[in-house]
Specification:
single chain, 281 residues, alpha+beta, Jelly Rolls, 7 helices, 13 strands, 26% helix
Length: 281
């Protein structure tokens, strides 16, 4: 029906503008049962409230972001983030929420591509969930909840805990801007993988989490990415004389290994994929 087509076109254009200008957008009326969100939040909070020795029965394996603990720690001299994590892969694939695929299709359509192009390219896509718990911090001026970084995924879906304080910030024109939590909404952001595939048309955005002196904060994150077995590079349709190729082709598994074995330092991990210019004076 015409009304449905107009509504769909408007939705696609909103996604396009958000991806080009921000790399982040918030989604309401997403269709996910609110009871599911509440149960997920309760289970995550219950886990983090367990005694430490119980949580440590599920330690984060070295060189991965799987299990309980602090990720991206590689040095005794490294300043630690004020965040406890519990991360796991979402397996088997049949139990996954299919809304991630819908959002990827919207993204491809907003680029003028066929709706299924990314899903077909991704193969047996990887989906992982991570729960972040930020306790109150007596000196929030000295400690970050999570250091500045961009995500290595294609798309990231964030659920902020009910009654959460403002914690998420994004970097825009060298200024950190707070993302106000809205009850029952999702925050979607572009990851490094989609920046590469779109040849920089859609950019992953640097973001961080800050702490609060009196309130704790919980967030639940789902990462959606291609199979680790495939090779990635800019889509040929998005490369031309005005937009030369900015990224090399690479194995996604190698990039993921590079990402999880380096400290969070803004968007530096994306240097792995960038084509370095050979300019000389």
């Amino acid at each position: 029906m015409k009304g449905d087509k107009d509504e769909h076109f408007s939705e696609v254009m909103q996604v396009k503008t958000a991806c080009e200008e921000w790399g982040f957008f918030q989604v309401l009326n997403h269709g996910v049962d609110l009871n599911v969100l509440e149960n997920m939040e309760k289970l995550a909070k219950d886990f983090f409230m367990l005694p430490l020795h119980e949580k440590q029965k599920h330690p984060m394996a070295p060189g991965t972001v799987q299990g309980y603990g602090q990720a991206f720690v590689f040095s005794e001299n490294q300043k630690l983030d004020w965040c406890n994590m519990f991360a796991l892969g979402v397996e088997p694939s049949c139990i996954r929420n299919q809304n991630s695929g819908h959002r990827v299709r919207l993204t491809s359509v907003s680029l003028g591509l066929e709706g299924e192009v990314f899903e077909e390219m991704f193969g047996e896509a990887v989906q992982a969930a991570r729960m972040n718990y930020y306790p109150p911090c007596s000196r929030p001026d000295l400690v970050l909840g999570l250091s500045p970084h961009s995500d290595g995924s294609a798309l990231t879906v964030l659920q902020q805990g009910k009654d959460s304080t403002v914690g998420l910030q994004i970097l825009k024109v060298q200024t950190w801007l707070p993302v106000q939590p809205i009850q029952n909404e999702f925050v979607i952001n572009i990851g490094d993988t989609l920046e590469v595939l779109t040849n920089g048309k859609y950019k992953s955005v640097e973001h961080r989490a800050v702490t609060h002196k009196e309130k704790d904060r919980l967030s639940i994150v789902t990462f959606y990415a291609p199979s680790y077995k495939i090779e990635l590079g800019p889509m040929p349709e998005l490369v031309d004389e005005k937009n030369p190729c900015r990224y090399r082709r690479y194995n996604h598994g190698e990039y993921n290994k590079h990402y999880v074995t380096n400290e969070l330092q803004g968007k530096r991990t994306l240097d792995f994929a960038k084509i370095q210019s050979n300019t000389s004076n």
